[in-house]
Every structure is written in C-alpha cells, then in structure tokens.
Specification:
With 199 residues, this protein is of the alpha/beta class. The protein has a single domain, classed as Rossmann fold, CATH 3.40.50.150. Helix content is 39%, strand content 22%. The protein has 7 helices and 7 strands. Strands 3-2-1-4-5-7-6 form a 7-stranded mixed sheet, with helices on both faces. The radius of gyration is 16 Å and the shape is globular.
C-alpha cells in the first residue's frame, strides 16, 4: 500500500495533479477517527489519493467519490483497484453539479473546482446526517487567499475572490458553525448548529 501511495504522490507531482497536502490529510484522518465517521461523500476524486488514504483507516468505512475528468477518473479506477479497496470506495464518473446521489453521509468532503464550492455545498448538504460535518479543502489556495498582494493573473485573482466569497458564505451560514483550520492548504470544518437539530 505504501508503495502505491508513494507512486501516486510522485505521479501527482509529475503531472501537476492536485492531491491533499500531508498536514491537512493527517488532520482530516484524526477528525474522522475522533468523530467515528464511517460514510463519506467526496466531491473531486482526482486520482483517488484521499479516498484511498481515508478508506484504509477503517474496514467499515464506505466512500462515494465523484470525478468528472476522464483521465483522472481512469487513473483513480486503476489506483483504487490496486489498493484492494474497491469494496469500500464507489467511484462515480460525472460532473458533481449535474448528477444526483442518494444516501446519507457522516461527512461530505469538498475538494473539486474551487469556483463552484458554494454550489457544491448547497447541492449536497441535504445528504448530510444531522450530526455530520462538511470538510472543505484548499481555502488558503497556496497562500494566495491570505496574501492578495502577491502577483496573480486575472483568472487566478478571480478564483481567489471566489474562495474568499465561499469563506464569507460559511462564516455567515445560518445553519452551520464553521471552524477554519490552518493545516495543509487550509481546511474548513462545518457542523450543523445545535439549534437546527432541536427544531
């Protein structure tokens, strides 16, 4: 397994595939264990790196993960088969904004197109269990969010603005309390407010 993980990390570096940074992954794994999470919906599989790293935490873990890019999807299929975790990881090929998923999840993990985070949140939060959490990755976006003075292309500036809008959206959400964690590339942990659970 560790050989596969090393190969995936090398492949991601070589082909510039965004995978979860190690510090953020370690924090996320700890969060999963502490909250007894057994079901995860992941939006954005890439090459299957985080799904494999999370599924191997517990043989009872079940992950549904969505990837729209053809090449990344094919690579994720290959990696998940090699990991021996096909019984635990269900990989779906499609655009997360265009398909519909059934089920209830302990955790929803948003790690796909940054410009669409608000739409992902609004579409899929209805599938979250009452005591579940939504984890969003890349909210620092390589430090650009905290350092807007850094030189950026126009498209990058637009993307950073959308990430900032998402952070404000989470901060002001009526139904969720969000904790922002400075691990990896910046994480947000959103939990349903207790008042909503009582109503």
């Amino acid at each position: 397994m560790d050989k596969l993980i090393e190969e995936m990390e090398r492949y991601a570096r070589e082909y510039d595939i965004p995978i979860m940074q190690k510090e953020g992954l370690v924090f996320f794994q700890k969060l999963i264990v502490e909250n007894h999470i057994k079901t995860i919906l992941e939006i954005g599989s890439a090459i299957g790196y985080s799904a494999i790293q999370l599924a191997r935490l517990d043989p009872d873990m079940h992950i549904v993960t969505i990837e729209r890019d053809d090449e990344r999807y094919a690579k994720a299929v290959e990696n998940i088969e090699r990991s021996g975790l096909t019984d635990q990881i269900e990989l779906i090929h499609g655009d997360a904004l265009e398909i519909d998923i059934d089920g209830n999840f302990d955790c929803i993990f948003i790690d796909a197109a940054k410009a669409q985070y608000i739409r992902f949140f609004e579409k899929y939060e209805t599938l979250l269990k009452e005591d579940g959490i939504i984890v969003s990755d890349n909210l620092s976006f390589h430090g650009y969010v905290e350092h807007p003075e850094r030189k950026m292309s126009r498209s990058l500036r637009g993307l950073v603005r959308k990430i900032k809008n998402y952070i404000v959206y989470l901060e002001n959400h009526e139904k969720y309390d969000t904790l922002f964690i400075n691990e990896g590339d910046g994480l947000a942990i959103s939990r349903k407010k207790k008042t909503n659970m009582v109503e």
